[in-house]
Structure formats: structure tokens, C-alpha cells
From TrEMBL:
Keywords: Disulfide bond, Glycoprotein, Immunoglobulin domain, Membrane, Signal, Transmembrane, Transmembrane helix. SUPFAM superfamilies: Immunoglobulin. This is OX-2 membrane glycoprotein isoform X2. It comes from Python bivittatus. One of its GO terms (molecular function) is cell-cell adhesion mediator activity. Residues 1-29 form the signal peptide. It is found in: Membrane. Residues 27-117 form the Ig-like domain. PROSITE patterns: IG_LIKE.
């Protein structure tokens, strides 16, 4: 009797797992996809594979855009593959009713985003997948500063894609940011601060975050910077050299005049 109860419990558990699996498949769809990362200017392949077998007569690829999706390629069972947009950069690498893959070459920032593959069948209806493409460009950053009297003006700039984020520490520092869209679609962020040196007790830190990575760039604080600015080394050296040159020239002229007077 106990064994029957164990078997009946297991049967109920198996039945529950089957029901959950069926519900999961019905809500998640039957298309397998993979998201991709690609560097700006590179090549990448997006692929959709139909897990369940259906009588597919057409596969359509779309670029998902805000407000209006864009058809970019289709594969028809009778007509074959057809590229509708970006014909010089997109081509099919796999085309079949159950499996479809497109290759994008010379990827631009406009290619960033999600795509949709739609398998059309009758009478089952459409089965859809949504692979997403993350386009990136390596970070380029720099920091510079100038001192005007008792004030410091500093610029921290970062260029990349997606947009880099800039923060200053201490956080109470006021900043002004400017965004610039470059011809290749990358974004340049320029962050400027203007502070009184007397208020800068510690190092000023510019923190740039890009694609989950952090880069730290530092400016010297008041204590470290005072030594640099209290003794202007370069102007003093130039003054010393100038004085020495004047003395040497003076001695040469004096000796030449003496020779003339002596008749040499």
C-alpha cells in the first residue's frame, strides 16, 4: 500500500512537471536564438532555429525600431532568399524553412538593437524569435586642467559606444557636461569642473564607466599641487639662462674693446 502511494506521488510530480514544461514552451515560443556582441566595423551573424517541426513557407527578418519595425530580409520556400535592406552589408549564411541566419558586415552603431525572425506556417501560425545585437567601440579617455589664480578648471573627456558615463569625486563638485555625436556614431562626453583651489583638500577623481568597466583618472589635490605652483621652475631657469647670456656677451664686448685700445 505504501509503495502504491509512492508511485502515485511520483506520477503526480511527473504530470506536474509535464504541465509546467508545456506551459513554458507555449509562453516562450519555439525559436532558439543567441544574443551577440560585435565591435564597431566588424562582422556578426544572427541565427534563429525553429525547435519544433512545422511546415514553414516563409521566414522574415525585421529590425525592431521605435514606432515602426523594418523588414530587412526574407526567405520564401518557393522564391528563395531575398535581402530587402542594406544589400551591400547583409546576406544569408543559412537559409532553410527550419533554420535561418543572416550576416551583417561593417557593423555601424545604427545596427545596435534587437531583431525579430518570424517563421510563418499554416495552420500553426507564426513562431517568433528575438536575437539582440550589442554594438560597442573601445573607450578613449583623457583628462586635462589649467590653473587661473586660485581656481582650477578641469576637463574629463570620454569617447565610445554605447555612451560613457562620467562622475567626479568628491561628488559635491559641480560639473557641466556636453555630448557630441561623432560622424561614425560614437559618442563623446566632455565633463568640465571649475573649483576654487582652496576648497580642494584631496585628489580630484574622474571616474569613467563604459560597458561595465571603470577607469579612474586623478588630479592632484591642494597639498600636492601647492609645491608645483609655489615655485615656478621653468620661468626661473629661463631667467637664469638669460642673465648668464647677458654676462657672457658683456664680457666678450669688454675684452674686444680692451684689445682695440691696446692696438692689438
Amino acid at each position: 500500500m505504501r509503495m502504491k502511494r509512492i508511485y502515485s506521488t511520483r506520477a503526480l510530480q511527473d504530470l506536474a512537471l509535464c504541465i509546467i514544461a508545456v506551459m513554458f514552451c507555449s509562453t516562450q515560443g519555439t525559436v532558439m536564438t543567441n544574443n551577440q556582441d560585435v565591435e564597431l566595423g566588424g562582422n556578426v551573424t544572427l541565427r534563429c532555429t525553429l525547435i519544433q517541426h512545422h511546415d514553414i513557407y516563409q521566414v522574415t527578418w525585421k529590425k525592431i525600431k521605435t514606432g515602426n519595425d523594418e523588414n530587412i530580409a526574407t526567405y520564401n520556400k518557393d522564391a528563395g532568399p531575398s535581402v530587402l535592406k542594406y544589400k551591400d552589408r547583409i546576406n544569408f549564411t543559412v537559409w532553410s524553412p527550419q533554420d535561418s541566419a543572416i550576416n551583417l558586415s561593417n557593423v555601424s552603431t545604427e545596427d545596435n538593437g534587437c531583431y525579430q525572425c518570424i517563421f510563418l506556417s499554416f495552420p500553426e501560425g507564426p513562431a517568433m524569435g528575438q536575437p539582440c545585437l550589442s554594438v560597442y567601440d573601445d573607450l578613449k579617455s583623457s583628462i586635462s586642467y589649467n590653473i587661473f589664480g586660485n581656481h582650477l578648471s578641469a576637463n574629463c573627456s570620454a569617447t565610445g559606444f554605447p555612451r560613457p558615463n562620467i562622475s567626479w569625486f568628491p561628488p559635491e563638485v559641480d560639473k557641466k557636461e556636453t555630448d557630441i555625436v561623432n560622424p561614425n556614431g560614437t559618442l563623446s562626453v566632455i565633463s568640465n569642473i571649475f573649483v576654487s583651489i582652496s576648497n580642494v583638500e584631496q585628489e580630484l577623481i574622474c571616474q569613467v564607466i563604459h560597458r561595465g568597466k571603470t577607469k579612474i583618472m586623478k588630479l592632484p589635490g591642494k597639498e600636492k599641487d601647492q609645491t608645483k605652483n609655489s615655485f615656478p621652475v621653468v620661468p626661473v631657469l629661463l631667467g637664469v639662462i638669460l642673465v648668464i647670456l647677458v654676462i657672457v656677451v658683456g664680457i666678450c664686448c669688454w675684452r674686444r674693446q680692451r684689445k682695440k685700445h691696446r692696438g692689438f
